Amino acid sequence: MSVRGGVLIVFLLCAATVAHVVERALSSEAFAATPVDPLEHLLGSSKEIVGDMMFLKADEYFHGGVAEKFNESEVSVHQEGLVDEESHADKDSAGLQDKDWISEINRRIHSAEHFHLSKEKRKEMLPFFALATALDPHNLEAVLSSAYWLDADFNKTDSAIEVLKKGILQNPDSWELEDSLAMMLFKRKKDYVSSREHHKEALRKAQGKELQGYEWERMYFYLAEACLQLQAKTEALSAYQRALAYAQRQGSGLESIIQQKINQLV
Amino acid sequence: MIPVLVIARMVIKEIFRKKDFYVALILIAVILFYASSLQFYNTEKVVRYLEEIGLLLIFIFSVILTATLAARQYPSEIQNRTAYVLLAKPISRLQFILGKFLGSLLAGWSAFSIFYVFFLAIVHVKGGGLVSPLLATQVFYLFLLCLMIVSAMASAFSYVLTVSANVTLTITLYLLINTYGAVLKKASQHLIWLSRSLGEALYYLMPHFEFFDLRQRFIHEWAPLSFGLMGFLTLYALIYTGLFIFLSWIFLRKRAI
Known about the structure:
Helix content of chain A: 55-70%
Strand content of chain A: under 5%
Number of strands of chain B: 0
Oligomer: heterodimer
Number of strands of chain A: 0
């Protein structure tokens, strides 16, 4: 090897070492400026908008590809391969009210009766829920809907819980996510310890926010139920009493049931 | 007829000789393979998102390839000075126009057919069988008609515009009309007088590409279109194609070459 070649190799090694050291120093200070998430890197700040569109797309899929608002008058219509569960009146999906021949052709091509996806085909919504929650983790409606469908329709409670936990990490002030997780842990997983903790968190986060009375009533009621399962009778009694107070204020009709539970504990 | 076919055959060879088609095919393949490999909450046989991405890609790429090919025919003949040779007798200007249009059309149809078969294969492998072969055929047939109009339009524009202007205008018109064609008249009512008239003129004059886009119907498994409507759409496409070929002839007829 010539001297010139050796010098070149030494120079390249030095340059590589300097580049490595500089990069490490920069990356430790500038981590906040460089998005780690590839989706964020690709879409930038528009990723929330795309995420919200994906959520709307999931809704459109559920309604058989029709994205518009529908008349409330219900008409039962059957579509090939699809079972309508709550069909509404026919709607011009292209949003066409004019009566010219072009709109008429468009109506014939791009309109369909409104129907809901049959149960076995609802899985087609999952990619859009996954994208919606990944792109816009602050869209609470998307996170809650994704978790709901995963749990209620696809029996994927573990995935639903995972979605909610990720949502809570991204939205630490959301009582809705804590409440939904607590309910899922209570009803589906029978994990009363975790359910109680998340109910408490939901109640703590809900303080100072405008909730409906029945929401307070429900949260206190299920907190009490979880406590009762864990034999924490004093805590359960206190929660039942709070639930009863809201039930009486609301006139929800559950007063007698809650009162019975209180009587059993006293 | 023979001169027309000879010119058309030369154009068809061009699309497969140039790299555009292969680049498009590879791009479609990469995106579709990646999209089909995605798993959502460990659920099997989720295909509609793949159909949505796949159809969008093959429609867009087919339009781009067809428009580009049709747009560069006449300008490249002029630039290479081969138009003078071609337009010498016994080839008339109308035969030249028809040959260029037919070649672009058949090349675009070939590319789209390959894309469509590839797309159906990917969807089949992913687990989505054809719910309605008739509907799949209608999607294919109507988009062939759409490409026919695109090809005729780009051919007509090629006699008055540069290649880049032509490609930009054709693809922009396709995308705009396909997206907003159905609501153009309604939307233009909220605009100022000049724009409203322009909007309405465009609404009635421009070919409605959205008529030939059955993606929504295919993805959500709606019923196929009636044969009467298919016949009407065929006639509609033929009329616009004829109009654009006539325009091409008007443009080229008195042009000094």
